[in-house]
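Notebook entry, cofactor series.
This is the third protein in the set we're modelling with a bound small molecule. For this one the ligand is fe (ii) ion. I'm keeping the input format identical across the series so the outputs can be compared line by line later. Sequence and SMILES below, as received.
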Amino acid sequence: MLLGGATLIPDLAIIDPKFTVSAPKSITAATGLDALTHAIESYTSKKAQPLTDAVALSAVKRIFKYLPTAYKNGTDLTARSEMSIAAFEAGVAINNASVTLVHGMSRPIGANFHVPHGISNAMLLEKCLSFVLDGNYPRFAELGRAIGAANSSDDDKTASEKLLGAIRELCAVCEIPTLAGYGIDREKFFAVLDKMSEDAVKSGSPANTVKAVSVDDVKIIYRSLWE
Ligand SMILES: [Fe+2]
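Returned structure with ligand:
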């Protein structure tokens, strides 16, 4: 579950990309893909609105363009600057339009298996979005075209699927492991799967998803991470 409230909000936040240059690759991957998840989830959230759309879309474009360079060459200050702006834009977007299914399902994996937040998001991103797609092809298609994975001649379904392909590629570039690759024991995962599924839905985030999400849907998606 989340902790929130005014006492947790800093009086001042300094966003200086120079501070991120020494971040190791694993942190660059986790935070970069967390920002991508924020941007995509807020853009496709039930609470999306024109002001959050503008920053979410901008963040998605920057992340697809600059995260591979920031990951491979951490001292590239242009890539670090673009990722810092993107992370800020995506934060503005989620604070006003909320996250959806991916974050709802990601937190229980972190709580039970201590996977860093951005990594568990990345593990879930493609599977969760492929579940949500058929309720929301036009929105996902806009993202697919905005990053250049699809073009105007692709129909919305095709453009949405090309977005998922681009997400898969970006996760591969950032060397995102599977649950098994991370070292999680399959039996231990399945032992807590029912509780994780209930907790995911209870967190409230999945209710912001454009498609209705049941506890059984969440169970199916968790199981699919092992296929
Ligand atoms: Fe997040």
